């Protein structure tokens, strides 16, 4: 039996800490949306309390099978009414703290899943 490391073409999170994440060789210090297919865009919120229904409308327009919401330093849940655009597209949302969201994103992206992570990086 031959063993070799798993390889993935997906964009991955290489590290994280308070107020930053590493994506491949870049250090990001603002909230961001990442997709396993290479999507990387700023997300205009600096803390969970900045979220509005429009943030979830934006997430619903993305081509993904699952969205992971990294809600900052602790796990918090958006109001259920804000999730209507995601539910209308039958798009799943998982909410967890940002550190857990980074780890979960890497696992799913490494499996070849079409996943998007919306990560709040609190300053």
From TrEMBL:
Alphabetical list of Gene3D superfamilies matching this protein: MTH938-like
InterPro entries: MTH938-like_sf, NDUFAF3/AAMDC
Domain of life the protein comes from: Bacteria
Segments passing through the bilayer: none
PANTHER family named in the record: NADH DEHYDROGENASE [UBIQUINONE] 1 ALPHA SUBCOMPLEX ASSEMBLY FACTOR 3 (PTHR21192:SF2), NUCLEAR PROTEIN E3-3 (PTHR21192)
Protein name per the record: Xcc1710-like domain-containing protein
Lineage, broadest ranks: Bacteria, Pseudomonadati, Pseudomonadota, Betaproteobacteria, Burkholderiales
């Amino acid at each position: 039996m031959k063993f070799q490391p798993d390889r993935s073409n997906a964009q991955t999170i290489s590290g994280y800490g308070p107020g930053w994440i590493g994506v491949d060789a870049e250090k990001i210090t603002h909230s961001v949306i990442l997709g396993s297919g290479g999507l990387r865009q700023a997300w205009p919120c600096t803390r969970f309390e900045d979220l509005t229904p429009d943030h979830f409308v934006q997430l619903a327009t993305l081509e993904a099978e699952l969205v992971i919401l990294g809600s900052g330093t602790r796990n918090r849940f958006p109001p259920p009414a804000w999730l209507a655009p995601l539910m209308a597209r039958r798009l799943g949302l998982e909410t967890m703290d940002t550190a857990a969201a980074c780890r979960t994103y890497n696992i799913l992206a490494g499996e070849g899943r079409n996943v998007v992570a919306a990560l709040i990086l609190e300053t």
